[in-house]
Specification:
Distance between the termini: 88 Å
Strand order of the largest sheet: 1-10-9-6-7
Shape: rod-shaped
Largest sheet: 5 strands, antiparallel
CATH class of the largest domain: Alpha Beta
CATH superfamily of the largest domain: PPM-type phosphatase domain
Oligomer: single chain
Order of helices and strands: HHHHHHHEEEHHEEEEEEHHE
Strand content: 5-15%
CATH architecture of the largest domain: 4-Layer Sandwich
Length: 473
């Protein structure tokens, strides 16, 4: 039934439902206005018809009852006090005026008219009797022995008249109450229906204009996220395939690797090859940023490095060529730091060149030496010059390489862990095997972060020169 509505664009749904809301509010306004007017009319009717009836009834009883004309009638009959006659006349006149005012009400039932006439006639009988008593008294013909029979007047018609007027008053009051209650029930029903419709339209606005599109967008985003996750899984496999896998084949050097990308894929890349027997080349690069962009850059870096890693003999020369290749062939305006280390176990020499890479550490005879940068980062400027440095490298000597994600981590207070922490840990544990030093650094970092997520990719490479039957070390 509402399929046409479901198929409308969100903007048109919003317009339709907004119009419905406006109509609901208009309907509520009309109902409130009508209810107010009806209340005014009923209240006016109550004030003009019902309240006066109650007042007139009380006033008539007051003028006739105790302290009223009947009371003064009997006083005169018993005492012949002429003042009582004057008071009787005043009460009679007021009572007749009340009856006259009552008859001027907008709506008088026949029963009320008959009741008023009965009261009027009864008062008239009292007036006739008191007038007759005055005349007999003044002529000396009043017989005191006959006073009981003379005074007695049948008040039943007046009392019945009062009952009729009281019942009429209560009947009108009850009728008015029932009408007001009915109108109130109708008002409540209409208001409830209007508010329910308003709530429904607001709910529909929220659902079709906000919630449903968000659900659809979420489903679409989730679907895209699933596709992205699949792509990232594939990218992760591709990136894993460009990294060295079987390091146990290198018999003369032991390599310990910790590769920890921030997401599925990372912006760090490394490579380890044995260029010729007893000569190893280690490459570690860190592209700026992390995530997909950085991962794509690492593949580009690895691709360019692969072209020349076994062709160019000197690490400094390799960095110079790599820098010019990126500037000449890729207008990407990005930089990356890297370090190349050549280990010649035949000559027991370590040669390295560093393109803006953080200080790395070489451990020899319990002494820690920083392998400082020998040139600027790749991609900053064409025709950069790089230098190499050499150190002796003997049995049990160690090298620790890492990317800046290791020390550029912050605790919950925003304090930087820093490079000094790494060097301090290395110097304090200089006698440990390199893999244990790496484990100690990582555990110390986890304690420092105390559950805070890392904010960059981390790669560590530990190199240990070990004895082997195939070497001359």
């Amino acid at each position: 039934m509402f399929s046409w509505f479901k198929n409308l664009p969100a903007a048109r749904k919003f317009r339709y439902l907004s119009v419905l809301n406006a109509l609901n509010l208009f309907l509520i306004g009309i109902v409130v206005f009508l209810a107010f007017r009806i209340y005014q009319n009923k209240n006016s009717y109550y004030q003009e018809e019902i309240v006066p009836r109650q007042k007139y009834l009380l006033d008539m009883k007051s003028q006739m009852g105790f302290g009223g004309l009947i009371h003064h009638y009997y006083i005169y009959m018993l005492t012949f006090d002429i003042n009582s006659v004057d008071t009787f006349g005043d009460k009679q006149e007021k009572l007749f005026n009340i009856i006259l005012d009552y008859r001027h009400l907008a709506y008088i039932t026949p029963e009320e008219d008959t009741a008023l006439a009965a009261i009027y006639n009864t008062v008239g009988i009292y007036a006739q009797k008191i007038g007759m008593a005055i005349r007999l008294k003044s002529s000396g013909m009043f017989n005191p022995a006959e006073i009981n029979d003379f005074v007695r007047i049948d008040e039943t018609p007046a009392l019945e008249g009062f009952d009729i007027i009281e019942k009429s008053y209560h009947t009108l009051e009850e009728k008015a109450s029932q009408e007001i209650a009915g109108l109130l029930a109708l008002f409540v029903f209409i208001m409830f229906a209007a508010l329910l419709l308003l709530f429904l339209s607001v709910f529909l606005i929220n659902y079709f204009v906000f919630v449903k599109p968000l659900d659809l967008a979420y489903d679409e985003l989730k679907k895209k996220d699933n596709y992205t996750n699949i792509d990232l899984q594939i990218a992760k496999k591709i990136q894993a395939n460009i990294l060295p896998k079987d390091l146990s084949k290198f018999q003369n050097c032991k390599f310990t690797i910790r590769y920890l990308p921030l997401t599925f894929i990372g912006g760090d890349v490394y490579d380890i090859i044995e260029m010729r027997r007893g000569v190893f080349r280690v490459f570690l690069a860190d592209a700026t940023g992390h995530g997909i962009q950085a991962a794509l850059l690492t593949m580009l870096i690895k691709s360019e490095y692969e072209k020349m890693k076994e062709v160019i003999s000197q690490p400094d020369e390799l960095l110079e060529i790599l820098n010019n290749e990126f500037i000449e062939h890729y207008a990407l305006n990005f930089f990356f730091s890297c370090i190349i280390i050549d280990i010649d176990m035949n000559k027991k020499i370590l040669t390295y060149a560093s393109a803006g890479h953080p200080d790395q550490y070489y451990i020899h005879n319990k002494q820690v030496t920083a392998l400082v940068p020998t040139g600027k980062m790749i991609g900053m400027k064409k025709d950069l010059t790089y230098h190499f440095k050499q150190y002796s490298f003997h049995y049990r000597d160690r090298v620790l390489l890492f990317t800046d994600g290791l020390f550029e981590e912050f605790d919950k207070y925003g304090a930087l862990w820093g490079e000094d922490q790494i060097r301090s840990l290395i110097e304090s544990n200089v006698t440990l095997p390199v893999h244990q030093i790496i484990d100690l650094i990582m555990s110390s970092l986890e304690v420092y972060l105390n559950g805070i997520q890392k904010n960059d990719d981390i790669t560590l490479i530990g190199i240990l020169l070990q004895k082997s039957a195939n070497t001359h070390v």
